[in-house]
User: Fold these one by one.
Assistant:
Number 1:
Amino acid sequence: MPLKARDYKSGIKPIWCPGCGHYSVLNAITKAMAARELTSHNTAIVSGIGCSSRLPAYVSSYGFHGVHGRALPLATGLKVARPDLEVVAVGGDGDGFSIGGNHFLHACRRNVDIVYIAMDNEVYGMTKGQASPTSPETWLDGKLTPHGTEVRAFQPCAIALASGAGFIARGYSGDPNGLAQLIFEAMAFPGFAFIQVLSQCVTFVPEQTAWKQRVHPVEGAPETAAEAAALIHADDGFGKGILYRSPRPVWPRPHAQADQTEDPRAGFAL
Ligand SMILES: Cc1ncc(C[n+]2csc(CCOP(=O)(O)OP(=O)(O)O)c2C)c(N)n1
Ligand code: SF4
């Protein structure tokens, strides 16, 4: 009998703040898992550290709660070793774009067949509200950035495109059904699929509840990278939907797998 979204919940109660956007991302992931008829034993959710990175504990699947900023190398290694698994990396903007920023660039360019969901609340939630790479330049926090960050915000979708990602989408925690559809499409995409999810932190950036008035569907369906670049640069950062979808060969290529005839540990005294 097909499983329902609720069947993919682990039974561990999330400890996120009431109203945190990450609840909706969890719901969207389990909806997408049900729609794709995944099982607990053919799915692995991998994370780094942060409020968002607690998510694997809440899903009934294989999970790995790793080291801060290292969700993508963990997910990459897992998918290369176990291509039969649906591997989903999750985490926050701090985890993925600050300490993990270099891994993000290389995951986009390497094109291993994994899904990466960055739950972007433009702040370090877990460590109590410091600015992150995606914090707006003018974001004022009286104690920590009293004059704003005075640093240009990181643009995850533009950087994903420039780094070679073949699937780039933006979702919103206030639209869990739309987000579930994007995750479904990302899982179906052959190659690295990146979704930036605007996922509000109601505790440290309560003004993000106004995002619901700002999000809008993206205009257009770009077919080339140049068209996608134009769309992403023209967008105000609140356009949700698929910004780019263009498959290219995934890594590892079939010949690389065929060459691995010997146990790589042979010769080592274990
Ligand atoms: C190596 C290392 N550096 C710093 C930290 C402290 N730390 C834990 S979570 C975090 C940032 C979390 O922010 P984000 O990834 O945006 O997730 P959120 O909590 O907002 O969901 C930081 C800096 C750590 N755990 N390990
Ligand atoms: S601190 Fe922010 S990100 Fe963390 S659980 Fe609370 S609302 Fe969510």
Number 2:
Amino acid sequence: MKKRVSGIISLVLALVLLVSLSACGNQNSGQTSGAETVSAETAALEETDAPETETVSNVPEDVSSAVSNISSVGGVPLITLSNGVQVPQLGLGTQIQSLERDSSESGRKLLNDTSHDAVVAALQAGYRHLDTAHGYFNETGVGQGIIDSGIPREEIWVTSKLWPSEFGEGVTAKAIDDMLERLQLDYLDCIYLHHPAGDYMGAWHDLEEAYKAGKVRAIGISNFDNYMDAFNQIMEEAEIRPQITQIECHPFAQRQETRVLAAQYGMQVECWYPIGHADPNLLQNETLTAIAEAHGKSVVQVILRWHMQEGLCAVPGSTNSDHIRENIEIFDFELSDEEMEQIRALDKGEEGRYFNINYEQMGGFFTSLNE
Ligand SMILES: NC(=O)c1ccc[n+]([C@@H]2O[C@H](COP(=O)([O-])OP(=O)(O)OC[C@H]3O[C@@H](n4cnc5c(N)ncnc54)[C@H](OP(=O)(O)O)[C@@H]3O)[C@@H](O)[C@H]2O)c1
């Protein structure tokens, strides 16, 4: 009976999280290297017992046949990943949780049309980095937005994520081809495993093959910081280690330990919920408001500038063209060391997180996706 009650509680909790996470989930110069921009992490690293890892030696150079032509646009710095490819540090997050729940044909059309328009607005405003996922049900709209923007595809860093229902050797290979078809692309710049659930090792092997075949220029993990068994297995057994890791990270949850660990494995950190999903407690925080006023900027701009100066990639989400423009106008001011310290002091550690899923108990809920 006790077991049954705890099962029901787990189910309810997981459903709440699933709905919310949705099928989820420097410098101001032109070009920066990931290694150069993680100075804080590197300093911390020297004080910790770093594992005996070769950070880049098992990552072959990008063998993609794709003619990528990514450059710094709108002042957005480029970060060089461990395999030598360059990623624009700021991107557009395209998940629209509020529209995901309506799985009717008209609901999906609205979701994809809205994503399309946000992508066009972002690319026209100077963004050259887009973050989508199979689990956001909007890859079709994102892909069409790229075409309709008029910006050459090879100038854009396009990321998507594989859902655990499509993890497994052979299964993932097909899922990658399907993903390319939905996006109308010949290659992706980055593919993540979205969650550490299901047959993630089988999926990783297929992702490595896709990398070797030139279908994807960088491969990454997302949310594996929440399940260290899976994280360690990937690090130990991968032929090609991830070059990038996507995690929840914002001023209330700055994830120092996770960032240090990522640096130890040569992985760039990319932040989801970079502005705390617009949590009013964060956006109306007194410290941030004072800093914003001092610079004549908005709190969101200050938070995003903080991400940039911390050497983090960030993918703020927005469907509002004014916000989209505002969020990239962060390269004409600089936070002082003191202001950076004030923002670092807002860190609440794990308490400051919005989602911290126990995959060991709830991983099973991530292995189905209806579409
Ligand atoms: N790997 C994962 O599991 C995972 C999980 C969650 C998210 N993600 C990725 O991370 C991206 C970012 O996450 P998110 O979009 O949920 O959270 P977020 O970027 O922290 O916040 C987005 C919210 O902020 C608002 N906003 C944006 N710019 C604003 C501005 N200048 N002023 C005021 N409000 C502003 C947006 O509303 P408006 O539309 O009105 O601007 C939206 O409500 C997602 O889109 C997705 O690509 C990944």
